[in-house]
UniProtKB/TrEMBL annotation:
<keyword id="KW-0732">Signal</keyword>
<dbReference type="GO" id="GO:0004497">
    <property type="term" value="F:monooxygenase activity"/>
</dbReference>
<feature type="region of interest" description="Disordered">
    <location>
        <begin position="241"/>
        <end position="272"/>
    </location>
</feature>
<feature type="compositionally biased region" description="Low complexity">
    <location>
        <begin position="244"/>
        <end position="272"/>
    </location>
</feature>
<dbReference type="GO" id="GO:0030245">
    <property type="term" value="P:cellulose catabolic process"/>
</dbReference>
<protein>
    <recommendedName>
        <fullName>AA9 family lytic polysaccharide monooxygenase</fullName>
        <ecNumber>1.14.99.56</ecNumber>
    </recommendedName>
</protein>
<keyword id="KW-0624">Polysaccharide degradation</keyword>
<comment type="function">
    <text>Lytic polysaccharide monooxygenase (LMPO) that depolymerizes crystalline and amorphous polysaccharides via the oxidation of scissile alpha- or beta-(1-4)-glycosidic bonds, yielding C1 and/or C4 oxidation products. Catalysis by LPMOs requires the reduction of the active-site copper from Cu(II) to Cu(I) by a reducing agent and H(2)O(2) or O(2) as a cosubstrate.</text>
</comment>
<dbReference type="GO" id="GO:0008810">
    <property type="term" value="F:cellulase activity"/>
</dbReference>
<dbReference type="GO" id="GO:0046872">
    <property type="term" value="F:metal ion binding"/>
</dbReference>
<feature type="domain" description="CBM1">
    <location>
        <begin position="274"/>
        <end position="310"/>
    </location>
</feature>
<dbReference type="InterPro" id="IPR049892">
    <property type="entry name" value="AA9"/>
</dbReference>
<dbReference type="Pfam" id="PF03443">
    <property type="entry name" value="AA9"/>
</dbReference>
<keyword id="KW-0136">Cellulose degradation</keyword>
<feature type="signal peptide">
    <location>
        <begin position="1"/>
        <end position="18"/>
    </location>
</feature>
<keyword id="KW-1015">Disulfide bond</keyword>
<keyword id="KW-0503">Monooxygenase</keyword>
């Protein structure tokens, strides 16, 4: 396992032996190449703000925790025009090595007419998407970042149709919990949102980076390798309540919230005569175990690599 991971890292990441970040973004049929942190910044034109290193941020209050750099825009900064309500996808390195931890996506509106020249550290961010522990237990479960890996190392969110039109930064983040301190991997891109609505985030939904997280947040200090983690089925995602939610406390994600992961592929095995319990794996590429779920659950395709009793 370790040998395999090192092998992949050596092939895919010749200039740094670990980790990575958001390498590209797509929206509405447009592909946007990312910033290349190990190339000269001279001449680089990207919608993604410069970021400095493939290494994780391990201090949740670090001065770079907004966009993995000092927050400035480069001379050739570009902006993607995206429609409110459209899907936007961030692509991490192939193959992302960290399947345990949450995915989080934020927006921040910039003052004036463009984000160019606006330091991302000065912005107020609101969370538009999150995925924590999707099923199973903290110690042995299926996480947002595992789903990201199973989705071609990409994560797709919808720009809310209700946000006001204007200049925004989007911040894609994956957090790895396989070791402590937790590893934060945030990168940001510059957007111009069109066709939006009139629902501004509430004050309790707006946060700064640094500021949104603390190093004692339960979602950043959870230890996957304890006996307790082997039975614990709740995980508290760091950061503010989701934009559009009415609850004030941080959202607690419990196993049943997997609705967005079941897509058009449909069930592969509808016979409810098997032995696999709710949320257990029952199929997927490479799966050699049993495929029958206990009644009343059915084996449901989550993605090509993962079917689950739901
Ligand atoms: C998978 O991601 C890569 C970028 O990492 C992209 O070039 C490729 O088109 C993606 N494949 C699919 C099927 O989306
Ligand atoms: Cu890493």
């Amino acid at each position: 396992m370790l040998f395999q991971l090192l092998g992949i890292a050596l092939l895919a990441v010749p200039k740094a032996l670990a980790h990575g970040g958001v390498m590209a973004i797509s929206n509405g049929g447009n592909w946007y190449n990312g910033w290349q942190p190990y190339n000269s910044p001279t001449g680089q034109a990207s919608i993604i703000r410069p970021w400095a290193t493939y290494d994780p941020i391990t201090d949740a209050t670090a001065s770079t925790v907004h966009c993995n750099d000092d927050g400035t825009s480069p001379s050739l900064q570009m902006t993607a025009t995206v429609a409110a309500g459209s899907k936007i996808t961030g692509y991490w390195n192939q193959v992302w090595p960290h399947p345990y931890g949450p995915m989080l996506v934020y927006l921040a509106q910039c003052p004036g007419t463009t984000c160019t020249g606006v330091n991302t550290r000065s912005l107020k961010w609101f969370k538009i998407d999150e995925a924590g522990l999707l099923s199973g237990t903290v110690g042995k479960g299926y996480w947002g970042s595992g789903k990201m890996i199973d989705s071609n190392c990409s994560w797709t969110s919808t720009i809310p149709s209700t946000v006001p039109s204007g200049p925004y930064m989007i911040r894609f983040e994956t957090i790895a919990l396989h070791s402590l301190p937790a590893q934060l991997y945030p990168e940001c891109a510059q957007l111009q949102i069109t066709g939006g609505g009139n629902v501004s985030p509430s004050s309790s939904q707006l946060v700064s980076f640094p500021g949104a997280y603390s190093n004692s947040d339960p979602g950043l200090t959870v230890n996957l390798y304890t006996n307790e983690a082997m039975t614990q089925t709740t995980y508290i995602i760091p950061g503010p309540p989701l934009y559009g939610s009415s609850s004030n406390p941080s959202s607690t994600q419990a196993p049943p919230t997997t609705t967005k992961t079941t897509t058009s592929s449909g069930p592969t095995n509808t016979g409810s005569t098997g032995t696999i319990a709710q949320y257990g794996q029952c199929g997927g590429i490479g799966w050699t175990g049993p495929t029958g779920c206990v009644s009343p659950y059915t084996c449901t395709v989550v993605n090509p690599y993962y079917s689950q009793c739901l």
